[in-house]
Q: What sequence folds into this?
């Protein structure tokens, strides 16, 4: 058995799961901002719940991408070049989202805020959809040739699986974000988030369940089906807790659902990292796509030092900012005026 | 449509843009951290104001660097998949280390700093900023390690036509990386410092224009205050004068560092990429002279069209070897050597499409290398000169009332940015036609090099890259306009833009502990 490539496959799965788990509520909060309320103080409240943490959460994406480059360069090269258009859109979505979070509060006109709210909401949606499509396609397959290059033109990746994966992550983000807001806020925002979670939660999670099942039918075994069973248990626990108003348990149930569901997907596709829909001989696997053992070993040491530290200080950040926030905590928004004689 | 040229333009445009934001982040970060340290140590109000004001500008700029940095990491795989396959065993490692050991620290601790003002104890809060700044300085190290490996590949052996990492320590301590890293950090400090000088100058000038500060008969400042303008009290003068002085001193030190490290870097480059340096000189024939001004058709691709009209004998040898008489090889000597060592044509692998079998032109675009090198040095000297002048002109505690001089000071903010851009364009364009330059020094491994023409993604069409290039250019352009306008707005607002309580003392929270620090 390829020990180091397997270890790295697990590490990359963990990085993606970490990303979805943490950015899931950031992106969902961005989308909810677009639809949930017109009241500016409530919008600011919603945005400030992710304020201290969203940028650190986004680093999970950067690290997942870079770790894939380091550990499985052929996987990185084939997946990213094949998905050229959707990843361009994903990047644009992430750019708009990041700039919108920082700049929204730095202008004082309604027009300014509306513009950035849209950028934030649409950017978050596109980014969530793009990441979901990419992850779904790397588990269901892309038309790649022997060299790992795309066959069939710029839109050859556009399949029902891409849409399913995109919707799966968008749906999960929405649900996860409403659980997060329920946990982090007070007042109207909190009760609206709870209502949304109870009403729409089960529906919004369906595409993710669909993706899990597609992969299981395609290549599941006893162990991965067992993970699916646990995931179902977790999601039921989460949704029922939400209905009973147990916000902490609802959040934990959803998080466990994501971890187990995604784990069942990654475990089922192992050892293939990117199947070719043209010829099974062109499949990229953990052994054909990986770096040499020396590189994998070096990076394993670096990760063994770095990742626990990340968990530690990111965990501390959530502890520092653990209080629920209400609109009453927000200082007045202020306009910036030139400091000159008028 | 051939994707190569479009992909190169895209990489160039997105990278240069990214590296407008990044040196400001790298340079301003430590300065803000020093200001906050001074506040924590002395308790003086002016340092708090400096921290808040410059910190605000730092964040407005920081976010654009973050947002555009994502594109950098993704486009290796998207547009340069053959490159990624070739170098993956080596190149991905520093990128992953950058994420794990630098970006996580930077982003997480900056979040703590922004929102932690009233939530963390003073000293711990200060520490979060230092950690974030250390994260960004570490991130620069890892990305320059990656870039330097493309300039001077070390620590590998060739297995089945691909470099395989054998010594990560050699990659991390690549002499190219260590010099380039220090050079970049000093260059970034100069950027942050010039930013302080230009903006503080504007503020001091504004105070004079509004009649707040006046001068006595000997030209010494008499500091005043105006209660009807938010933040324009007596402390305000100290904020700007101290910022200006810190900026000017750091700019001069930064330039000194840039010159020393640049010299070390040039000596290595003569050894490691001789053709790049010959092209930077427009030097066709072997010789010892440094060209101050060369005319002729630098862009013709034919070296003998270039004539040096002013040159200083011996200086080129001094730059390369530290003496005045060692002959430096010119372009006409080097090109046949390169052709013999690395081939005359691109491999005719069908993967390269219409480029397969094409003849390789080893001469970088000389007008870019020649002028890039000189603009880098010229703008660097200009920035340092401006800083010296700024110190002299403000020796009596304020700036002259002259509006043109104020505008010149503001405009000089651009000089170190321009020097940074020119330097990177020079070194990256000078590496062409290689994306991974061969390592001709004794530690080098034969066959570890790659032509840019072989690096682009074979499966991606030119149309796709045109789409992304247009989209990025448009979005980046729009964001640049927004960023600049926001910076101008906050600069014009003075300290009160970052500390609204200065404008409206009644707003000041009665019990600061109860109110959270919100950023958005």
A:
């Amino acid at each position: 058995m390829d020990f180091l490539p397997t270890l790295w496959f697990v590490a990359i799965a963990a990085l993606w799961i970490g990303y979805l788990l943490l950015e899931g509520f950031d992106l969902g909060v961005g989308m909810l901002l677009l639809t949930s309320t017109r009241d500016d103080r409530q919008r600011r409240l919603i945005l400030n719940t992710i304020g201290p943490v969203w940028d650190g959460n986004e680093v999970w994406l950067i690290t997942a991408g870079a770790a894939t480059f380091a550990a499985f360069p052929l996987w990185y090269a084939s997946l990213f070049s094949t998905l050229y258009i959707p990843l361009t859109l994903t990047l644009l979505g992430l750019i708009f989202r990041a700039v919108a979070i920082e700049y929204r509060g730095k202008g004082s006109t309604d027009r300014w805020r509306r513009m950035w709210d849209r950028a934030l909401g649409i950017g978050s949606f596109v980014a969530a959809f793009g990441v979901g499509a990419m992850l779904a396609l790397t588990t269901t397959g892309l038309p790649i040739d022997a060299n790992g290059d795309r066959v069939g033109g710029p839109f050859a990746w556009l399949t029902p699986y891409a849409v399913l994966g995109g919707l799966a992550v968008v749906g999960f983000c929405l649900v996860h974000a409403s659980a997060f807001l329920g946990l982090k806020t007070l007042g109207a925002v909190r009760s609206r988030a709870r209502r949304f979670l109870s009403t729409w939660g089960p529906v919004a999670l369906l595409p993710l369940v669909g993706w899990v099942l597609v992969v299981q039918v395609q290549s599941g075994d006893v162990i991965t089906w067992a993970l699916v069973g646990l995931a179902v248990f977790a999601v039921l626990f989460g949704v029922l807790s939400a209905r009973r108003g147990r916000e902490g348990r609802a959040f934990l149930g959803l998080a466990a659902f994501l971890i187990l569901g995604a784990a069942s997907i990654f475990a089922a596709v192992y050892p293939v990292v990117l199947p070719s829909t043209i010829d099974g001989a062109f499949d990229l696997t953990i052994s054909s796509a990986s770096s040499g053992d020396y590189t994998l070993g070096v990076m394993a040491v670096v990760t063994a030092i770095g990742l626990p530290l990340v968990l530690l200080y990111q965990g501390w950040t959530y502890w520092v900012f653990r209080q629920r926030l209400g609109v009453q905590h927000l200082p007045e928004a202020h306009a910036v005026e030139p400091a000159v004689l008028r | 449509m051939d994707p190569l040229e479009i992909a190169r333009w895209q990489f160039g445009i997105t990278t240069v843009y990214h590296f407008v934001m990044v040196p400001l982040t790298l340079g301003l970060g430590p300065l803000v951290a020093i200001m906050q340290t001074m506040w924590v140590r002395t308790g003086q109000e002016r340092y708090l104001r400096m921290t808040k004001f410059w910190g605000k500008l730092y964040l407005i700029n920081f976010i654009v660097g973050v947002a555009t940095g994502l594109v950098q990491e993704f486009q290796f795989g998207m547009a340069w998949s053959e490159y990624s396959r070739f170098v993956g065993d080596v190149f991905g490692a520093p990128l992953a280390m950058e994420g794990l050991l630098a970006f996580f620290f930077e982003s997480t601790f900056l979040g703590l700093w922004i929102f932690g003002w009233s939530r963390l104890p003073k000293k711990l809060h200060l520490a979060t900023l230092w950690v974030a700044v250390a994260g960004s300085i570490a991130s620069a190290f890892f990305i320059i390690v990656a870039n330097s490996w493309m300039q001077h590949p070390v620590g590998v052996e060739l297995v089945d036509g691909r470099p395989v990492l054998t010594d990560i320590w050699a990659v991390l301590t690549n002499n190219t990386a260590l010099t380039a890293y220090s050079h970049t950090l000093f260059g970034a400090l100069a950027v942050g410092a010039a930013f302080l000088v230009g903006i503080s100058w504007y503020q001091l000038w504004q105070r004079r224009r509004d009649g707040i500060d006046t001068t006595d008969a000997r030209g010494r400042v008499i500091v005043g205050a105006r209660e009807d303008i938010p933040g324009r009290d007596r402390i305000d003068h100290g904020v700007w004068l101290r910022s200006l002085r810190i900026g000017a001193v750091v700019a001069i030190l930064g330039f000194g560092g840039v010159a020393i490290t640049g010299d070390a870097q040039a000596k290595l480059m003569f050894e490691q990429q001789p053709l790049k340096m010959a092209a930077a000189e427009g030097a066709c024939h072997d010789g010892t002279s440094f060209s101050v001004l060369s005319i002729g058709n630098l862009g013709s691709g034919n070296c003998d069209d270039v004539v040096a009209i002013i040159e200083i004998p011996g200086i080129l040898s001094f730059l390369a070897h530290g003496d005045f008489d060692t002959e430096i090889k010119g372009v006409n000597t080097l090109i046949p050597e390169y052709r013999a060592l690395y081939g005359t044509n691109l491999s005719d692998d069908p993967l390269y499409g219409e480029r397969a079998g094409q003849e390789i032109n080893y001469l970088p675009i000389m007008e870019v290398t020649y002028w890039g090198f000189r603009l880098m040095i010229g703008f660097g000297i200009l920035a340092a000169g401006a800083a010296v002048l700024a110190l002299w002109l403000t020796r009596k505690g304020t700036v002259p009332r002259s509006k043109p001089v104020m505008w010149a000071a503001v405009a000089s903010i651009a000089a170190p940015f321009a020097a940074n851009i020119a330097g990177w364009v020079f070194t990256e364009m000078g590496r062409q036609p290689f994306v991974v330059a061969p390592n001709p020094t004794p530690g080098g491994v034969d066959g570890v090099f790659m032509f840019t023409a072989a690096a682009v993604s074979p499966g991606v069409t030119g149309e796709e890259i045109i789409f992304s290039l247009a989209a990025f250019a448009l979005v980046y352009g729009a964001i640049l306009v927004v960023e600049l306008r926001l910076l101008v707005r906050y600069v014009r607002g003075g300290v009160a833009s970052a500390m609204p309580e200065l404008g409206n003392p009644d707003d000041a929270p009665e019990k600061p502990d109860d109110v959270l620090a919100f950023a958005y």
Remarks:
- Strands of chain B lie at 156-159, 162-165, 214-215, 221-222, 290-296, 306-312, 434-436, 450-451.
- Residues 318 and 438 of chain B are 25 Å apart (CA to CA).
